[in-house]
Amino acid sequence: MHNGIGLNTPRGSGTNAYTQSNKFFVKPKTNQVELKLVILEDKLVEQGYNESKIPDKLVEARKALEYAQQEKDEEEGVVKPIPTRQQK
Length: 88
Prior knowledge:
Layout: H1 28-46, H2 54-76
Helix pairs in contact: 1-2
């Protein structure tokens, strides 16, 4: 058993008791940031920005959005995940 998940022992269960994380679970906050960046990129293209300057603008916007999201999380008291294996 790992972190209270899985079987105490795989004997007689027909499985090797291997557990894996859900790879399809993606934080909605990350998706929101990515969506805003895609919308911004479309707007910059429509406004006629130079193709070489768009990536720079997106990097700046990503930093600002991630910082704003971090500030919002801290205000709301969002708990950050703790690594499952900690050194003693």
